[in-house]
Design a protein that fits this description.
heterodimer, A: mainly beta, 7-stranded mixed β-sheet, B: 6-stranded mixed β-sheet, 5-stranded antiparallel β-sheet, globular
């Protein structure tokens, strides 16, 4: 079974703090993704990476950055947290080839910025 | 611009009956579609998918139908069970986009006894 783990299930941070969210997958997947989920808005893609040190902006990259130094690990960074970044953050991974597009998700991190 | 739309935020169905969840899309380049199920405090889990070369795909109690001309897909769950109560997201992808998915806003299904 594919396993995607996220460093924290719940996180509370103050406005202006730098926040790191870590994601690790154990299936040697090339692609990794960061989403946020908000009520009524579904899952929105923040950033994704299709290889080590490669990254591409998703639909809502403003206020976020990412790092992928190793294939299994993809980090989301909030440079200066703001209250409108309070959300559920979901990490996912998938294979690059084979015509299969299923993404496998971690359990999520509920981030509250006060 | 919402390219994948789920117009029903919620649906309530009795146990044993059929649940039908709908999804519309606007981007004609989408050629692969997926359904995910999400329980509270958990990540979404993959349920079933369909390629644009097919119009139906079945897996046990779950069937996905695709109508390309209408840009519409639906997920049928028969028979519905209380454990099916969750939020369901449809998602779409285009070949060659590194499996990047565009998700709908979700439909909360409640299966009542």
């Amino acid at each position: 079974d594919v396993k995607v783990t996220q460093s924290s299930r719940y996180l509370v941070k103050r406005t202006g703090e730098k926040v790191f969210l870590e994601c690790v997958q154990d299936m040697d997947h090339e692609n990794m993704f960061w989403y946020r989920q908000d009520p009524g808005l579904g899952l929105r893609l923040i950033y994704f990476s299709y290889d080590v040190k490669m990254k591409e902006k998703g639909d809502i990259p403003e206020g976020y950055s990412v790092s992928r130094e190793k294939k299994e690990r993809f980090s989301l960074i909030l440079e200066s947290a703001s209250t409108n970044q309070t959300s559920m953050y979901l990490c996912a991974s998938s294979l690059m080839t084979g015509g299969r597009y299923e993404q496998y998700f971690g359990p999520g991190t509920r981030l509250t910025v006060t | 611009d919402q390219q994948v739309k789920q117009n029903s935020p919620s649906l309530s169905v009795q146990e044993g009956r059929i649940s039908i969840l709908n999804c519309d899309y606007t981007n004609s380049m989408f050629d692969y579609f997926l359904w995910y199920k999400k329980y509270p405090a958990e990540g979404p889990t993959f349920l079933i998918s369909i390629s644009s070369i097919k119009d139906k795909n079945e897996d046990g109690r779950f069937t996905v139908f695709l109508n390309k001309s209408a840009k519409h897909l639906s997920l049928h769950i028969v028979p519905s069970q209380p454990g099916d109560s969750a939020v369901y997201f449809c998602a779409a992808s285009t070949t060659g986009t590194a499996s990047k998915l565009t998700f709908g806003t979700g439909t909360r299904l409640q299966v009542t006894l």
